[in-house]
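To whoever is on call:

I kicked off a structure prediction for a single chain this morning and the downstream step that reads the tokens threw a length-mismatch warning. I double-checked the sequence; it's 301 residues and nothing unusual in it as far as I can see. Pasting both halves so you can look.
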Amino acid sequence: MKNVVIVGAGAVGALYGQRLNSVCSLSFLVDEERKERYLRNGIIINGEAAPFAYRCADEIGSTDLIIIATKNHHLHTVIEQMKPIVGPSTVILTLLNGIESEGVLAAAFGWEKILHGFAVGLNSTHVSNRIEFTAEGRIVFGERDNSSTDRVAALSELFASAGIEAVVPKDIHLMQWNKFMLNTAYNTISGLLLANYRQLDQKAVKELAYGVCAEVQAVASAEGVRIPDSFIEENHNLVITLGDGKTSMCQDLEAGRTTENEWFAGSVAALGRKHDIPTPICRTLSLLVQAKEAISFMALA
């Protein structure tokens, strides 16, 4: 995998792009407006200008690997931009939050091109074009059927050569649902409270988060994935040790940006309706985030 394209120059894309830039031919896929902005302002990572190549699709051509690191609400636009660079042997790895992006991408390009994946443990602050990292985390990825394939081996080798910690679990779906459960609980609650990780270490937050997790477990089971109870406690104990960092949703709400609420609590509520499973906590939290977004947008208008 010599020719690599990253879509999305936020915290996830910028960090792993910085690592990959020295070991392969790397491009960030952009439109003309973003290209002009990035060339003018650059991306600053931990105080240093990132040496990235920003290219439009017609400047790239067919590529070996595409890593998608946008927010979910950009995915449909991204798919249209990607079409000219997806060739017969292109592999697509999505690092988007939630449990839906693989299916959306497969509908556009076919399941045979898609690897499941996500980033975990990455701790960053993103303001304007400046990104500060305190923890790089790792990439978790694998085939839809959890098989060991040549492309999984090749991608593992690429990440290792770039100094990126990467894990191929026995069950990518279970790990993805666990990350989804953690995000739905703690991104949503921290966003509504505008709280950092350390401030989530309290009884009321734990009780609410565990209620969210129980609803995620219920819809996951209906979708064929059993999330062990032990994961809930492990996730809580992990989150409250992350100090003064903030979740992506907390940062989005503070900055007046659109959140991924639709793909967190909103997704749980939608799956609850699909399977006739009550999800009152996630439904309520989703509505509260929607209201908070609307208030923020009105304030900025």
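Update from on-call: the warning came from a stale cache, not from the record. Cleared it. Sanity check on the structure: The domain at 173-300 is CATH 1.10.1040.10 (N-(1-d-carboxylethyl)-l-norvaline Dehydrogenase; domain 2).
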